[in-house]
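Q: I'm building a small set of examples for a reading group on sequence design. Run inverse folding on the following structure and report the sequence directly after it, with nothing in between.
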């Protein structure tokens, strides 16, 4: 019984919406372009050069990944099986996979100091 009333309500609503067709008025010709507006405030200059650099490697056993001397490690990530990262310095880390012999893609994000 409730399904029948729901169906009737939905049918009435769809018929009501189709009867409310929106009429679009015809537009005239486009006029001339107006004068340019005032210039906005100048923003601060953005950073120059590379901000974040990614070092991508593949490890089958313990391997070391490093950023440049003027960079530090922002984040590390091992894709697939995983393992552990040991941070030796702020710009160098050693990755030890859970299973040796299996190729694991590792990513290190480097940011300037």
């Amino acid at each position: 019984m409730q399904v029948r009333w729901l169906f009737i309500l939905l049918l009435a609503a769809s018929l009501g919406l189709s009867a409310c067709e929106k009429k679009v008025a015809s537009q005239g010709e486009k006029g001339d372009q107006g004068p340019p507006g005032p210039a906005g405030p100048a923003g601060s200059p953005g950073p120059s050069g590379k901000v974040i650099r990614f070092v991508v490697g593949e490890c089958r056993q313990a391997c070391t990944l490093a950023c440049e001397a003027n960079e530090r490690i922002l984040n590390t990530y091992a894709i697939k099986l995983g393992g552990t990262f040991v941070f030796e310095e702020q710009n160098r880390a050693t990755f030890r996979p859970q299973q040796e012999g299996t190729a694991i893609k590792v990513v290190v994000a480097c940011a300037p100091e």
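The first helix runs from residue 2 to 19.
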